[in-house]
Protein backbone atom coordinates (compact mmCIF):
# COMPACT_ATOMS: atom_id res chain seq x y z
CA UNK A 1 0.00 0.00 0.00
CA UNK A 2 1.56 3.30 -1.03
CA UNK A 3 1.34 6.56 0.91
CA UNK A 4 -1.61 7.95 -1.09
CA UNK A 5 -3.65 4.81 -0.44
CA UNK A 6 -2.82 4.96 3.27
CA UNK A 7 -3.90 8.63 3.44
CA UNK A 8 -7.16 7.77 1.66
CA UNK A 9 -7.78 4.90 4.11
CA UNK A 10 -7.08 7.17 7.10
CA UNK A 11 -9.61 9.70 5.72
CA UNK A 12 -12.23 6.96 5.22
CA UNK A 13 -11.67 5.64 8.74
CA UNK A 14 -11.90 9.18 10.13
CA UNK A 15 -15.29 9.63 8.47
CA UNK A 16 -16.44 6.29 9.88
CA UNK A 17 -15.41 7.34 13.40
CA UNK A 18 -17.14 10.73 13.06
CA UNK A 19 -20.40 9.71 11.39
CA UNK A 20 -21.18 6.33 12.96
CA UNK A 21 -23.68 6.00 15.76
CA UNK A 22 -21.70 3.10 17.17
CA UNK A 23 -18.35 1.45 16.42
CA UNK A 24 -17.59 -2.01 17.82
CA UNK A 25 -14.01 -3.34 17.99
CA UNK A 26 -13.44 -7.08 18.08
CA UNK A 27 -10.68 -9.65 17.63
CA UNK A 28 -11.31 -11.98 14.73
CA UNK A 29 -8.22 -14.24 14.79
CA UNK A 30 -9.11 -17.75 13.68
CA UNK A 31 -12.29 -16.91 11.76
CA UNK A 32 -12.56 -18.56 8.37
CA UNK A 33 -13.29 -16.62 5.19
CA UNK A 34 -16.81 -18.08 5.19
CA UNK A 35 -17.40 -16.90 8.77
CA UNK A 36 -16.17 -13.38 7.90
CA UNK A 37 -18.48 -13.36 4.88
CA UNK A 38 -21.33 -14.43 7.17
CA UNK A 39 -20.50 -11.53 9.52
CA UNK A 40 -20.39 -9.07 6.62
CA UNK A 41 -23.73 -10.38 5.30
CA UNK A 42 -25.41 -10.06 8.70
CA UNK A 43 -24.06 -6.53 9.11
CA UNK A 44 -25.15 -5.49 5.62
CA UNK A 45 -28.67 -6.88 6.23
CA UNK A 46 -29.06 -4.68 9.32
CA UNK A 47 -27.62 -1.53 7.72
CA UNK A 48 -24.20 -1.87 9.34
CA UNK A 49 -20.73 -2.46 7.89
CA UNK A 50 -17.48 -4.23 8.71
CA UNK A 51 -13.98 -2.88 8.12
CA UNK A 52 -10.61 -4.49 8.69
CA UNK A 53 -7.77 -1.96 8.84
CA UNK A 54 -4.28 -1.77 10.25
CA UNK A 55 -4.41 -0.65 13.86
CA UNK A 56 -1.71 1.94 13.27
CA UNK A 57 -3.76 3.62 10.52
CA UNK A 58 -6.95 3.42 12.59
CA UNK A 59 -5.18 5.09 15.52
CA UNK A 60 -4.01 7.90 13.22
CA UNK A 61 -7.61 8.30 11.99
CA UNK A 62 -8.83 8.50 15.62
CA UNK A 63 -6.61 11.49 16.45
CA UNK A 64 -8.75 14.52 17.26
CA UNK A 65 -12.03 12.56 17.04
CA UNK A 66 -14.50 12.46 19.95
CA UNK A 67 -13.97 8.71 20.30
CA UNK A 68 -10.15 8.90 20.35
CA UNK A 69 -10.04 6.92 23.62
CA UNK A 70 -11.08 3.86 21.65
CA UNK A 71 -7.50 3.62 20.33
CA UNK A 72 -6.54 1.54 23.38
CA UNK A 73 -8.74 -1.29 22.05
CA UNK A 74 -6.84 -1.49 18.77
CA UNK A 75 -4.35 -4.26 19.48
CA UNK A 76 -3.90 -7.54 17.65
CA UNK A 77 -6.11 -8.62 14.75
CA UNK A 78 -9.06 -6.25 15.06
CA UNK A 79 -12.16 -5.70 12.98
CA UNK A 80 -14.39 -2.61 13.16
CA UNK A 81 -18.17 -2.98 12.95
CA UNK A 82 -20.09 0.27 12.59
CA UNK A 83 -23.51 1.70 11.75
CA UNK A 84 -25.33 5.01 11.72
CA UNK A 85 -28.05 3.42 13.86
CA UNK A 86 -26.62 3.51 17.39
CA UNK A 87 -27.71 -0.07 18.02
CA UNK A 88 -27.50 -2.11 14.78
CA UNK A 89 -23.77 -2.94 14.69
CA UNK A 90 -23.72 -3.82 18.40
CA UNK A 91 -26.71 -6.17 18.03
CA UNK A 92 -25.23 -8.02 15.07
CA UNK A 93 -21.79 -8.23 16.72
CA UNK A 94 -23.30 -9.68 19.90
CA UNK A 95 -25.35 -12.24 17.96
CA UNK A 96 -22.33 -13.22 15.88
CA UNK A 97 -20.14 -13.54 18.99
CA UNK A 98 -22.65 -15.99 20.50
CA UNK A 99 -22.33 -18.23 17.43
CA UNK A 100 -18.54 -17.83 16.97
CA UNK A 101 -16.27 -18.10 19.98
CA UNK A 102 -13.29 -16.88 17.90
CA UNK A 103 -15.00 -13.50 17.49
CA UNK A 104 -14.19 -11.66 20.71
CA UNK A 105 -15.75 -8.22 21.28
CA UNK A 106 -13.30 -5.86 23.00
CA UNK A 107 -15.42 -2.72 23.27
CA UNK A 108 -16.20 0.27 21.11
CA UNK A 109 -17.54 3.78 21.06
CA UNK A 110 -20.94 5.45 20.88
CA UNK A 111 -20.29 9.08 20.04
CA UNK A 112 -17.89 10.39 22.68
CA UNK A 113 -18.64 7.52 25.05
CA UNK A 114 -16.05 4.74 25.07
CA UNK A 115 -17.67 1.35 25.67
CA UNK A 116 -16.13 -1.68 27.32
CA UNK A 117 -17.35 -5.23 26.63
CA UNK A 118 -20.33 -4.84 28.99
CA UNK A 119 -21.18 -1.48 27.41
CA UNK A 120 -21.43 -3.01 23.94
CA UNK A 121 -23.67 -5.75 25.34
CA UNK A 122 -25.91 -3.14 27.00
CA UNK A 123 -26.17 -1.15 23.76
CA UNK A 124 -27.09 -4.31 21.86
CA UNK A 125 -30.08 -4.85 24.15
CA UNK A 126 -31.50 -1.39 23.45
CA UNK A 127 -34.35 -1.09 20.95
CA UNK A 128 -33.29 -0.10 17.44
CA UNK A 129 -34.31 3.15 15.75
CA UNK A 130 -37.06 1.34 13.79
CA UNK A 131 -38.45 -0.31 16.94
CA UNK A 132 -38.55 3.06 18.73
CA UNK A 133 -40.28 4.76 15.79
CA UNK A 134 -42.86 1.94 15.61
CA UNK A 135 -43.66 2.21 19.31
CA UNK A 136 -43.95 6.01 19.14
CA UNK A 137 -46.25 5.81 16.12
CA UNK A 138 -48.31 3.19 17.94
CA UNK A 139 -48.65 5.47 20.98
CA UNK A 140 -49.61 8.44 18.83
CA UNK A 141 -52.00 6.46 16.61
CA UNK A 142 -53.94 4.72 19.40
CA UNK A 143 -55.48 7.86 20.96
CA UNK A 144 -56.43 9.17 17.51
CA UNK A 145 -58.31 5.97 16.65
CA UNK A 146 -60.02 6.03 20.06
CA UNK A 147 -61.13 9.63 19.49
CA UNK A 148 -62.40 8.81 16.01
CA UNK A 149 -64.32 5.84 17.41
CA UNK A 150 -65.81 7.94 20.20
CA UNK A 151 -66.86 10.69 17.80
CA UNK A 152 -68.27 8.21 15.28
CA UNK A 153 -70.20 6.13 17.84
CA UNK A 154 -72.73 8.78 18.96
CA UNK A 155 -73.50 9.65 15.34
CA UNK A 156 -74.29 6.03 14.53
CA UNK A 157 -76.37 5.77 17.70
CA UNK A 158 -78.36 8.88 16.72
CA UNK A 159 -78.84 7.51 13.20
CA UNK A 160 -80.20 4.19 14.50
CA UNK A 161 -82.55 5.98 16.94
CA UNK A 162 -83.87 8.19 14.13
CA UNK A 163 -84.43 5.21 11.85
CA UNK A 164 -86.30 3.39 14.67
CA UNK A 165 -88.52 6.44 15.24
CA UNK A 166 -89.17 6.69 11.51
CA UNK A 167 -90.11 3.02 11.29
CA UNK A 168 -92.56 3.40 14.23
CA UNK A 169 -94.09 6.46 12.60
CA UNK A 170 -94.69 4.57 9.36
CA UNK A 171 -96.19 1.60 11.21
CA UNK A 172 -98.71 3.78 13.07
TrEMBL record:
CDD domains: Ribosomal_L10 (cd05797). InterPro entries: Ribosomal_uL10, Ribosomal_uL10-like_sf, Ribosomal_uL10_bac, Ribosomal_uL10_bac_type, Ribosomal_uL10_CS_bac. Coiled coil: none annotated. Keywords: Ribonucleoprotein, Ribosomal protein, RNA-binding, rRNA-binding. The keyword Ribonucleoprotein applies. The keyword rRNA-binding applies. It holds the Pfam family Ribosomal_L10. One of its GO terms (cellular component) is ribosome. It comes from the Bacteria. Part of the ribosomal stalk of the 50S ribosomal subunit. The N-terminus interacts with L11 and the large rRNA to form the base of the stalk. The C-terminus forms an elongated spine to which L12 dimers bind in a sequential fashion forming a multimeric L10(L12)X complex. Forms part of the ribosomal stalk, playing a central role in the interaction of the ribosome with GTP-bound translation factors. Belongs to the universal ribosomal protein uL10 family. This is Large ribosomal subunit protein uL10.
Amino acid sequence: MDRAQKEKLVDELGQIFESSGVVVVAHYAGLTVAEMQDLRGRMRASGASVRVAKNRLAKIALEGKPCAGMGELLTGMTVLSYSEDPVAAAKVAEDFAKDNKKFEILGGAMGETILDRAGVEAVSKMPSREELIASIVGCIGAPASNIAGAIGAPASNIASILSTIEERGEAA
